[in-house]
Structure formats: structure tokens, C-alpha cells
């Protein structure tokens, strides 16, 4: 039985739906700090859970016979830069609670996302490799990089089968974005349909690694299904699909909404985006567990607009 922590979030909600589709609704217990989100309401069991409360988490694991945890609760990059120590505390305490419980309750498997935000200005900008100079310069990146080492520690020392992906920016239409820097690429669609224009908080040539939610969810399930011997790292796998800039996605949207216009007013999030690579090399994921993305910019844009038009 699976516990999803952070089921109210952008990825947690869609992962809950995908896991329920795969294993059956009753096999997936969704949880979040806040009340159940409309996206998952009525699709299966839910409980509120503060991921900082280890006793409460352990109680839920024992009461429900949980054997796997997907831990998707975190404070993202933009919010993290506004409240550094709160973000560090939440991101690390929640992960360590999950790892300790996985050890004590001998859980079968744990999933925890890292991010391309672990890379800083000293990492290669183009086709950034999985193993390279990694000097995170955002609180979010610092917490994700530290978390990767903790995951490896619990695997090496206690045999906890924890697996992780460095997600790029993820684009989706089912839930509102939550405090990220890459979320301009979600906002742009809502604004294009509502106002026919968008005021972008990043510069037009800011290339960032991105991925459509369908690809991110499938990558997560494929990683978790892979035989343990195929998993060559219990830190985290680089994961990639597309890289684009605001002006490129704007041009793609214009193919569907010819009168769409975009203005650029970079804010504090530009400084965050400037520290990240423009593109990612995910050859280890392709070699070890046959990762292969399906959505390119054109296909993603068409799918987003079709679904947001309703
Ligand atoms: C953020 N969407 O912007 C997240 C992600 C790589 C970016 O980690 O913080």
C-alpha cells in the first residue's frame, strides 16, 4: 500500500491519480498538510498529515500497512528564497522523517524528487551531466542536494530502497503552480487564454530544462518499477525532455493564438533561473532504465491549450 505525501501539490496530485490508476484507488492513501484538493477528491482514501510530525506519519504507516512512500512535499525555489530557514527546515525534516520511518518500518520502496535546481552557476550550462561540479546557490537547491546525499546514506547504510529524479521545470494544467521559478511556463498558457497576452517574469532568452507532466509521471513510475539491480544511483537521476526559452514557447502559442502578445519584466526569479543549466544530459536514465521522453514543445503546447480551453 502506498502513502503519497504532498498530494495537494502540482506533482503529488497527478502522481496520486496515476498510482491509483495503476494499483487501484484503495491501494493509495493520499495525504497533505491542507484539506484534500478538488483534483483527487473522491478518487480514494485521504488523510491530513504534517510531514514534520514523525509520530503522526509513523502512526499512519503502521495503521494502514503502508509499504511504499512517495514524498512530494517541499517548499520550491521562489518561496524558498523568500524564507530560507523555513524552507530548509521543512524540506530536510520531512525527508529525514520519511527515511527514518522507511528504515524502522522496513518499507519496500521510497520515492523522493530532487531537481535540476541542485546545479549552480559553476555547473555546465549546456547538457549538464549527472555527475559534475554541483554547487547549489538557492535554498531549494541546497536542500535538494543535501537530500540526495541522505538518500544515498540510507541506501548504503540501511538498505532503504529510495529512488530519486532531478525533475526539470514541470508544465501541467490540472493544478495551479506552487511557487516555482519555471512556473512562468504554466502561467503563460492561462494568461494567453484569459488575456491574450502575458507579462513574463523571466527574460525572453532564458533557456531552462522543462518537461510535460505526463512525461514526468511516466518517468517516476518507470523508475520505481525498474529492478533494483538496474538502479545505479540512489542519489538522483538527471531527467530531461525539452529546453526552451520564453520567446520560444510564446512563438509556439502564437501558432494557436495568432494575436497573443508577450512582454518581459524580469523579477527576482531571473536571478534564480540564471544559476540553473539551460539543458540537461540524462544519458544515465536512458541507459539504466530506458528513459525516453514523448512530449516536445509543439505537442505539449497543443495539449495544454486543448485541455485548458476545456
Ligand atoms: C521550481 N518548479 O521552479 C520548480 C523546479 C527546476 C524548477 O524545481 O522551483
TrEMBL record:
GO terms for molecular function: L-threonine 3-dehydrogenase activity. Signal peptide: none annotated. GO terms for biological process: L-threonine catabolic process. Pfam families: Epimerase (PF01370). Residues 2-238 form the NAD-dependent epimerase/dehydratase domain. InterPro entries: Epimerase_deHydtase, NAD(P)-bd_dom_sf, NAD(P)_epim/dehydratase. Belongs to the NAD(P)-dependent epimerase/dehydratase family. This is Nucleoside-diphosphate-sugar epimerase.
Amino acid at each position: 500500500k502506498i502513502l503519497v505525501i504532498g498530494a495537494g501539490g502540482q506533482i503529488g496530485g497527478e502522481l496520486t491519480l496515476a498510482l491509483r490508476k495503476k494499483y487501484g484507488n484503495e491501494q493509495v492513501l493520499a495525504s497533505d498538510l491542507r484539506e484534500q484538493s478538488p483534483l483527487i477528491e473522491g478518487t480514494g482514501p485521504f488523510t491530513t498529515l504534517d510531514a514534520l510530525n514523525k509520530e503522526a506519519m509513523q502512526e499512519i504507516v503502521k495503521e494502514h500497512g503502508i509499504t511504499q512512500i512517495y514524498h512530494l512535499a517541499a517548499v520550491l525555489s521562489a518561496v524558498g528564497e523568500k524564507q530560507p530557514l523555513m524552507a530548509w527546515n521543512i524540506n530536510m525534516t520531512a525527508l529525514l522523517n520519511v527515511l527514518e520511518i522507511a528504515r524502522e518500518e522496513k518499507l519496500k520502496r521510497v520515492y523522493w524528487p530532487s531537481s535540476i535546481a541542485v546545479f549552480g552557476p559553476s555547473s555546465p550550462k549546456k547538457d549538464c551531466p549527472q555527475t559534475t561540479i554541483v554547487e547549489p546557490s538557492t535554498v531549494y537547491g541546497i536542500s535538494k542536494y543535501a537530500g540526495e546525499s541522505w538518500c544515498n546514506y540510507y541506501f548504503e547504510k540501511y538498505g532503504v530502497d529510495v529512488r530519486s529524479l532531478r525533475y526539470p521545470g514541470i508544465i501541467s494544467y490540472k493544478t495551479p503552480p506552487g511557487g516555482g521559478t519555471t512556473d512562468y511556463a504554466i502561467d503563460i498558457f492561462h494568461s494567453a487564454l484569459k488575456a491574450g497576452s502575458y507579462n513574463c517574469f523571466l527574460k525572453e532568452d532564458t533557456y531552462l530544462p522543462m518537461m510535460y507532466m505526463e512525461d514526468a509521471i511516466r518517468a517516476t513510475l518507470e523508475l520505481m518499477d525498474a529492478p533494483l539491480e538496474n538502479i545505479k544511483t540512489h542519489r538522483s537521476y538527471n531527467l530531461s525532455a525539452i529546453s526552451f526559452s520564453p520567446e520560444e514557447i510564446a512563438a509556439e502559442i502564437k501558432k494557436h493564438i495568432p494575436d497573443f502578445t508577450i512582454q518581459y519584466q524580469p523579477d527576482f526569479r531571473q536571478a534564480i533561473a540564471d544559476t540553473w543549466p539551460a539543458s540537461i544530459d540524462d544519458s544515465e536514465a536512458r541507459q539504466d532504465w530506458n528513459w525516453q521522453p514523448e512530449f516536445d514543445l509543439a505537442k505539449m503546447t497543443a495539449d495544454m491549450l486543448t485541455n485548458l480551453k476545456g
